[in-house]
Amino acid sequence: MRALFIVNPQATTTTPRSRDVLVGAIAREMELDVAQTEYRDHARELAQQAAAEGYELVISLGGDGTVNEIVNGLLATPEGLQRPSFAALPGGSANVFVRALGLPADPIEATGAVLEAARAGERRSVGLGRLRSDTDDRYFTFCAGFGWDADVVHEVDRMRRSGRRASPGLYISTALKLFLRGDVSVPSLRIEAPGHEPVHDLYFALATNTTPWTYAGAVPVQPTPRSRFGLGLDVFALTQVRTVRTAQLLRQMLSHRGVPPYGPGYVSWHDKSAVQITSRTPRAFQIDGEYLGHRKRVNLESVPKALRIVG
């Protein structure tokens, strides 16, 4: 098997020495070429070229942003070419997609699991979400958020450019700061989906392709615990932002069962083929933990069996 290993050298949980160990282990099992990303969207370009260059497998080492770029590159494989399979190794601070696939959070253990699956010829197909708007046409692997979580991502990105290191603690403290400052208290959002009446005056809206939505360290955060790669999109939206009720919901998200399908203070929809989210004023928007700017409308859809996964 011929494989391309795309490495983000800025990956927060690996070192050059540990990356060399991973490369050595993989190269003993297959014909391997290594490429390091040098700029934003470079991983997408490399993945898009992989099929034309004869690669059967693309492997990533990086965070969820690197994964998202590679997935979008693979989905842009030209017609007539066989799209390579994909294997993702954890190298970021959260690694939501990798962990949602059931792979270990440790890069060496995850590499072992991927190589074992490759030896056995095991492949599985997973569904993805797709974003369509006036300015975007992109796939996402686990979530798209309008409002609060996108504000958090935007603020953390700003701090990272100033030299701060991304960590679960930084995301949590930033989310709390924005909530207490009142940045969440704008009920401008509206959601609609097939089979439901539109819901207005929402403070925050989230569409997920799997569970969890994210991790608080090792703890999965589950506003949509029934969401799965093999189903459509799930939706969670806040209808109120009272401090006590929001704290109760956060505790439920951190519990083993997650947030129940019905309850006060929120709306939850399961297994939707498409979702539209609009805002009366531009609000922050993110996919897979990447801030995409402020939007007034996004159209999201489920794409079943979009990608072949090894591991």
Characteristics:
311 residues; alpha+beta; Tumour Suppressor Smad4; 2 domains; ten-stranded antiparallel beta sheet; 8 helices; 29% helix
Describe the structure.
With 311 residues, the chain is α+β, with helices and mostly antiparallel strands. The chain has two domains: 2-122, Rossmann fold; 132-304, Tumour Suppressor Smad4. 29% of the residues lie in helices and 34% in strands. The chain contains eight helices and 16 strands. Strands 5, 6, 7, 8, 9, 10, 13, 14, 15 and 16 form a ten-stranded antiparallel sheet that branches. Strands 2-1-3-4 form a four-stranded parallel sheet, sandwiched between helices. A two-stranded antiparallel ribbon has the order 11-12. The protein is globular and about 55 Å long. The chain starts with a strand and ends with a strand.
User: What's the CATH topology name of the largest domain?
Assistant: Tumour Suppressor Smad4
Q: What letter string, H or E per element, gives the SSE order?
A: EHEHEHEHHEEEHHEEEEEEHEEE
The total count of helices amounts to 8
Shape: globular
Oligomer: single chain
CATH class of the largest domain: Mainly Beta
**Strand runs, count:** 16
Cofactor: Mg(2+)
EC number: 2.7.1.107
Pfam family, one: DAGK_cat
Family: Belongs to the diacylglycerol/lipid kinase family.
